[in-house]
Queue: 3 jobs
Job 1
Amino acid sequence: MMPEMDGFALLRHVRADRQLRPIPFLLMTARAGEEAAIEGLLAGADDYLMKPFSARELLARISAQLELARVRREGEQRVQAERQRLYDLFMHAPAAIMVIRGPQHVYELTNPLALQIMGSHRPILGKTVREVLPEAEEQGFLALLDAVYQTGQPFVGNEMLGQFDKTGDGTLVPAYFNFVYQPSYNVAREIDGILCYVNDVTETVLARKRAEESEERLNTLANSLPHLVWSASAEGEIDFFNERLHEYAGMPRNEEGIYAWQAIVSPEHRETVQCEWDDVMRAGKAFELQYRLHMKDGTYHWHLVRGVPINDASGSLARWYGTMTDIEQVKTHG
């Protein structure tokens, strides 16, 4: 007999203590019978040994329980290490990640980039999306979350515009996002939440828009010039002409958008012009050539063809830009 408490009381005390809980517990008793053994095991004992027993059996059972405890401990350590690794990946992922639970879309877990997108001034965890981002409702994001939760169909957003109060002063800051709303499931395969994976692509979108606007301005400028303006790849394949092209006889263009400009060169000059063109393309230097082009009225006019190479940041040839100027009057009338 034990003073103050019996073995079952001690067992309950050990199992209730978080630090002592992993210790293997072997009950030794004079109570015989299957019911007593079952009672001990159900109470949380790892093994149950009824008297009489030999010292060898006791040592063998203790050794077995210690080995099982070691295996469990190592397994738990591996699980904990894997959890920590996944948590670190989650927290340091190069995208905003949010775990949302339930039909009310309650934030359960977010990483730092998610807080940055939403505004770090907001309390997040344990609150609904509607509470944290009231401005998201009228922009349709809550409706998308509802649809994913109800249907189980993921939603992929590409360069979608969102406006959020990042500083807490009521000012909505526009931004563009690529994102995925992916339903998550519990062990019963029922939808219990949504995993949100978000990338802020504002700089990329704005840079492209600026490039498109710049290209449009350049095209407008090119179309206003009294010359046939062209651009070509580094290999010399012309892929752009301004609107002056309509003054010339039809010029074939393939599916890749490359013009067969040689088709409008006068037949007697075509072979020579092709050789000269190949030479200047290989040289990669600014050039001037003269040859006759087929006009829309059926005549051939002399043209001064100029080209300038453009190099990229590494110094390699990137593109050609140039003009074709009608010099027929100069050629024929001096």
Note: The CA atoms of residues 226 and 330 lie 16 Å apart.
Job 2
Amino acid sequence: MLKNSQDYKEWIDVATELDILAGKGEIERHYFDVELVTNVVKKMKRFMSKNDVYALSSLLQNSVLKKDFGGIENPLIYSNSYIAVHPIIPEYFRVTGFALDYICRHQDLSLQEKQRFLKKVSVNFGKTALCLSGGAFLAFFHFGVLKAMYENDCLPDIISGTSVGSFLASIICCRTNEELEQVFHPSVSENAKTLTNDFFDKIKNFYNTGAVYSVERYRQDASWGCKGDMTFIEAYRLTGRVLNISITTYGSTFKSICFNYLNTPDVIISSAVTASCACPLIIPPHSILMKKEGKKVPFLDLGKLWVDGSLTADIPEEELHRTFGVKSIIVSQANPHIFFFYPKGTPGSPNKHRNGHGWYSVLT
């Protein structure tokens, strides 16, 4: 039923019905501090009713707008049902949003005070990033996630992609909002293709290089998503979105590097995508290209040869936190083997095997 949903609203309606049928009306209380969150919600309401904007701003800065406040980001809260959660959680977010709007509109605070407040809470709360995993052809399921988030105006500006996920991320980060309206049309599937070699080309490539696909052909296929030879800095200036691609150095020590407009501004995105997809036996290790004085030259600052980013950092959480202040990660995970490591399910996808215990508990 969920798979047949045409949009997110329909998915919510179906998910709600499934939770009711499964008797999952409310999540267990012990997964987060219900009392703490409830008390803070009451305080915010009280301060607003008393018009005490300074007490409200202090509460938001020092308590409410902190990462994982009261444990509400515990994945288990959202993993035992499709959409049902403890009612205080949506109330917390609703009241917090109203409180922020209240402070921004309050006439007793000067513009400078409001700016200082917003800057501080922004640092405390951090930024949000969307990470698209690898997963070979299964990674194209990311496209549905991207489409749903874009249509509901909740697509983060910071997007990371690894392996085939980098191809999907580049499609989004190399296009303006106006262009994305066309990209999310079903006809885009005619262009969003990779690994299009015919059978005999695959045999020939494997015989000559030990890999099924050639670097040049894959880079050509990826260039549509990356709009030709666009670089990281060019994409950022065009769209304002921050594209991150995780790639692994090839050699005696495998080290993951997160390519973006700050670390590698002049690197050609299609070249980085091809490197991030260079899985053993599929695409051979190869160099990355950059633009220098209008010419394409090898990028040798961080390594000579590169391979699949999934080998070391499928989700570059630490790098995103260190470089862009990201504290909240939304992961679209397409790797099938991950299933066995989440016995309690994942957010929005409760584990139905063995009453929520999953297969991993059997194996261990």
Note: The mean pLDDT is 81.
Job 3
Amino acid sequence: MDIYLIDESKRYTLQFPVNPLDSISNPKEKKFSTTDTVEFGEVDISEKGSKIREISFNSFFPLQYDSYCRYVYIMAPHDYVGVIESWMDSDTHVRLIITEFNINELVNISKFTPEIKAGEDGDIYFSITLRTYKELKIETIINASSEDSGGLENNRTDNSQDEYKDGDNVKVTASSLNVREGPGTSYDILGSVSNGTNLEIYRQYGNWADTYWGDHGGYVCLDYVTKV
């Protein structure tokens, strides 16, 4: 299992170096309103939609690489803490990817608690809670006679992007596109593919995708490919 947080606005990927120490809490709740009736007492009435989902887990940032780490070139523990806290301070919503749970969605970091345990030389333990991000669409009346907008202005930022699934084929549009070990520019370059090369998608990670490339696969940025 691999867990990523991706800041798509800055094309920055943080992969947690150590998997959760116990379990991942990933509940899904329906919305109900409770009404008191004379004949039956309290009854629950199902409402449209679902409650915001909270995903939480505990782990730690190790001072040095060990066999339980998900990759070799780990950052210093305080660097991981700094990145996560900067996202919280700037209200940045990030994309959460958990491979084994097939989770790939935008979230806000609602709670992050780092701590240093006695006897742990430099390791930083933490708990983190993430809440599903839902973009609010607001329509504002600007001119009832406007022909172009029909009297409505859509203030929603367009964050739409193509979605890819296993088996989709894409063609490289850049003159040369790097293939990397992971979904981000911080990962080592494994090689490159030239303009017009066709690649087969395995799994999408935000604006990156793992592809069937070479003997072991590799990640490419989806900004420089187009669907075939």
Note: The chain has two domains: 3-27+37-132, 168-227.
